[in-house]
Amino acid sequence: MDKNFQEEQFTGMIKFTPPLYKQRYQFVKDLVGKYKPKKVADLGCADCTLLWMLKFCNCIEVLAGLDTCASVMKEKMHTLSPLPGDYLQPAERSLTVTLHHGSVAHKDPCMLGFDLVTCIELIEHLEESELEKFPEVVFGFMAPTMVVISTPNSEFNPLLPGVTVFRHPDHKFEWDRAQFQSWALDTAKRYDYTVEFTGVGSPPTGMEDVGFCTQIGVFVKKYPQTSKPAQSEKPTEAAYETVFKAVYPSLKDEKYLQNAVVSEVMFTAQVIKQSLLDHLVSEQEKYNDNPTERKFQLQRSVNCFSEDLETQAVEKSTEPFVNGNVVYIPLKKIFSSPKVTRLCGTFEKLCKLITGKVTLSTDGSAVILNTEHENEEN
Amino acid sequence: MTGRARARARGRPPGQETAVPPVGAASVQQTFSSHPSGHRQPQQPCLPPSLSEEFGGRGRQRGPQNVPKPLGLQISAGFQELSLADRGGRRRDFHDLGVNTRQAIEHVRESKTGSSGIMIKLIANYFRLTSRPQWALYQYHIGYNPEMEARRLRSALLFQHEELIGKTHAFDGSILFLPKKLGNKVTEVFSKTRNGEDVKITITLTNELPPTSPTCLQFYNIIFRRLLKMMNLQQIGRNYYNPNDPVSIPNHRLLVWPGFTSSILQYEESIMLCADVSHKILRSETVLDFMYSLYYQVEEQRFRDACAKELIGLIILTKYNNRTYRVDDIDWDANPQCTFRRADGSEISYVDYYRRQYNQEITDLNQPVLISQSRRRRGSMMSGPVVLIPELCYLTGLTEKMRNDFNMMKDLVVHTRLPPERRQHEIGRLIDYIQKDDSVQKELRDWGLSFDSNLLSFTGRVVQAEKILQAGNVFDYNPQFADWSRETRVAPLISAKPLDNWLLIYTRRNYDIANTLLQNLFKVTPSMGIRMNKATMIEVDDRTEAYLRVLQQSITPDTNIVFCILSSSRKDKYDAIKKYLCTDCPIPSQCVVARTLSKPQTTLAIVTKIALQMNCKMGGELWSVEIPLKQVMVVGIDCYHDSLAGKQSIAGFVASLNQTMTRWFSRCVLQSRGQELVDGLKACLQTALRDWFKWNKYLPSRIIVYRDGVGDGQLNTLVNYEVPQFLDCLKTVGKDYNPRLTVIVVKKRVNTRFFAQSGGGLKNPPPGTVVDVEVTRPEWYDFFIVSQAVRNGCVAPTHYNVIYDTSKLKPDHVQRLTYKLCHMYYNWSGVIRVPAPCQYAHKLAFLVGQSIHREPNLLLSDRLYYL
């Protein structure tokens, strides 16, 4: 947070709304919204703010963070854990969030296969030796489809009162646009990427030639397919230490899917049963206003209907019916509920998932519920 | 079932079980009750929970030491954040730490333990926290020169000296806790920032904290919370839950998460972790889902009322962050497209806000919004109401309707009500988790702390069972069941009031039931000694006005009691009848729902209970126990809070009128918001003494007050305001009148559980078990009594805390008297959880709060008309 804070202090005169760090994160978020990457890594993730924002993006299935300072990551890493709500209604997508302790100067196979790698305000913190290794690790080894690199634009510094050398005491350098762009173009060329430049934090009117306060390079791999063969020669030893890992409950996981389906089936069945019983009662009321006879009548008519037609009804009808104290709700009827359909996809899948979890009729075609409950106690 | 079940069913104000509502006199929360118009005005900040809060906001990061925190203990901002503030819970002293009442009570300073009874081996849900010998926590102040602002930088600079400080530390930016002592009191070290600036860091030892210091206790709790987080338990409210194996009750879309409630405190002999099983009831439906299904169940014009009735008072859980809120109101004029002003001054709609901040799409743009009155303080400023979107909130806990659903509760109780052995096993799992988790173990080892792996075992006492005295007969009851309904069934009552002239009102449909009732009453009353004439039978239409008209026309000055058979449990009719007969026309009344009497096999038993209840309402007396203490007036006080309308709170006040404690005087105080309860209580006490004098021709020489309805963290208010008011009141009675006063705070909702070892297994301790060692608090004169018996699950002991006592009564006598009083509640022929006056006060407050809404007529005040 302190790098954000420092900037905030310096930019006291030039006020960015929203604050510049939020604009940088928003930039990444917009990019994710546009390209829908599945695997995203944030290098130099610090207190995980960006990761936390990204965990809400529905396209992302794997989210990883890397930082050299484990204690900073640990401070807020629990904000990346699933929330009770994630368990209550597990999401469609799966999501795994991992935090690694390590340096961008080292290669670790856990960083392979990513769609997007972000390095927000990272490179200016690297020592010269680290910066030298950085392109090889990120572009050569990790070789993601897309890389976003942001760094301060030193041309903007004169507009920031109080900035004498660098914006932050830990910065090893701050580049002007020419320096950044030549480094970026050079790197892109070497590793077969294209690069486009943009930024956030527009200069005040009249000072447009200094450029954005933060300059950003967006790198896209030219030949997305080529990464595979190259991997064989890559080292497989782990250089990072895993600090945190959270697997979000997801409907992709059979266990959660089954729970969700069973729960939805039971609930739907209850609703159908209730409306069926209400309907039957009101039907009877039309014919007979005498309360003592009503129940008897209801019972009798239900029995007649069911005894005669039970077998056919179970086989063919998709309509629920009552037999004595038991309500039969055909699975077909339940499956037609949009929520159940969406969860299961196919009728076969529905049957498979609820086997053993829900009481079914002997031929397995209907859910059975008891009417007893309703009339007692209350 | 008779009145007891009915009162329970109707009884619980919504949300009381799940919420932590402030009860009692001191902090009545303001509830948002006005309906502002759709568009929120900027001067009324209605903020959704913001991102900056979640991330601790930059404001807070910038200078933790600049913000004065309203906290007595010497723990700085960052640590509070770790403990409670980060959860959104307002910092409250839930454990009433620092209320030291025992030292002022001279005769228990040395010992507060009783001695009577038979010893019993008990186990309690406590684990000792042990620390290395000579353990201390060292507190340091860290200064920087030049001053460094950013907390992270401060940490980074300080921990460049890890070889000096060590790996184990807790640092919030200005205060450092270490498990070891540094060589010097003041240590100066130099660090270099990465651009070469030299920073002098001064590490000054400010405190050497013994294991029992309050700061240490708070520190333990912080560390313990860290451990729970490490174990991947989910924090909801104050407790931690395991989301991995929920119990699902699909019929109602309920999920039950097993979990733990825990706290570390200084108890009588040692610091212990009190851990109990807790179950969080969650629902896999959003508030919006719920509203929709409600919409199909009720008529259109009743929909809003139904929503309010079901939802207000419930605790909801937000989808996008882990926060719980209490629903205080529903704003039907607003919708998700309304805008609010953000901290930076920009205007944004809820839809856009949630989309941008949390990627949450709000699909229903016409839903109303929920209003929660925030109880959290930001600095010293109280933040405004919080607006929540129904679609983004999950329901937790049970609605009143669910509580009344017998079958559902049956399903639920199977999972939540654990018999002693299973409960002990589940509690043991928490310690298992702790012992098995390597990183947790490491953290504890590094601090030099560890937990006992066994539950605390010690010896309690079971006091002698009481004898039930009933008009010359003496009965023993089976102490295991703590119930004497069978034993006393055919015995005459102490005082039976005749039914010479009474009304029986029923609807046409219930004519048969009225006759059945009458026949059965003729069967059961003679053996009780109740003289009974045939009732004046009156048939009415099933409408409230019809009932009221009949009452107005038929009641004469000679009417003993009015009996109404109601055709349904609809509350409005009951309320109207009770209101009329408790205020305008003070006559005892008995209402029974027809269905209660419709089962032939139970009718006789039910009618017996009704006859007893009617007798009490007319001023009769049923039984007594031996009360050796003379000239003592026992007072019971309980509170009822109307959480629905949020209008008023009611305190029920009950005081004994005779030596045998069979007759009770009652009054109640209706207090509107923000009003102090104590003024009203003073008036109650004065009238009670006047009535006592009328009955006894002298004033009591001892007054013992049992005060129920005191919330966590309100003890201080009680000690500092309410007790002095009582004393004040006594002074006004007469110059030479100087009775001895004892004030005992009664608490039913405690996490303490006791298990009795029997053979190889565990059982509930028998009724009459008294515990005044080990798990009590050294700074209090307190004890636990298990007075009731339960058929399934674990019995919950009641905690008694004597906060003021000039009686000089031995602890033994106070304990015995308290237990005796648990036998004196006439609506239950058995021992109950609290002293009878508390239960009477509860019943009174409840009746007034639910049905009457006014102080009942004082002509009724010497009868148990509220049973």
TrEMBL record, chain A:
Keyword S-adenosyl-L-methionine set for record: yes
rRNA processing in keyword set: no
Known EC number: 2.1.1.386
Gene3D superfamilies linked to this entry: Vaccinia Virus protein VP39
Molecular-function annotations in GO: metal ion binding; RNA binding; small RNA 2'-O-methyltransferase activity
Keywords: Magnesium, Metal-binding, Methyltransferase, RNA-binding, RNA-mediated gene silencing, S-adenosyl-L-methionine, Transferase
GO BP field: piRNA processing; RNA methylation; siRNA processing
Cofactor(s) listed in the protein's UniProt record: Mg(2+)
Transmembrane parts of this sequence: none
One Gene Ontology term, aspect cellular component: cytoplasm
Catalytic activity: small RNA 3'-end nucleotide + S-adenosyl-L-methionine = small RNA 3'-end 2'-O-methylnucleotide + S-adenosyl-L-homocysteine + H(+)
Family note: Belongs to the methyltransferase superfamily. HEN1 family.
Protein name, as recorded: Small RNA 2'-O-methyltransferase
Organism in which the protein naturally occurs: Anseranas semipalmata (Magpie goose)
Gene name for this UniProt entry: Henmt1
From TrEMBL, chain B:
Gene Ontology biological-process annotations: germ cell development; meiotic cell cycle; regulation of translation; regulatory ncRNA-mediated gene silencing
Biased composition, class Polar residues, residue ranges: 27-36
Short name of any one Pfam family annotated for the protein: Piwi
Needed co-factor(s): Mg(2+)
Annotated keywords: Cytoplasm, Developmental protein, Differentiation, Endonuclease, Hydrolase, Magnesium, Meiosis, Metal-binding, Methylation, Nuclease, RNA-binding, RNA-mediated gene silencing, Translation regulation
Biased composition (Basic residues): 1-11
One function term, GO molecular function aspect: metal ion binding
Biased amino acid composition, Low complexity: 41-52
Ranges for domain PAZ: 286-397
Residue ranges, annotated region (Disordered): 1-71
Gene3D superfamilies in UniProt: 3.40.50.2300, paz domain, Ribonuclease H-like superfamily/Ribonuclease H
GO cellular component terms attached to this protein's record: cytoplasm
Superkingdom per UniProt: Eukaryota
Domain Piwi: residue ranges: 561-853
InterPro entries reported in the protein's UniProt record: GAGE, PAZ_dom, PAZ_dom_sf, Piwi, RNaseH-like_sf, RNaseH_sf
Annotated compartments: Cytoplasm
Similarity section: Belongs to the argonaute family. Piwi subfamily.
Protein's name in the database: Piwi-like protein 1
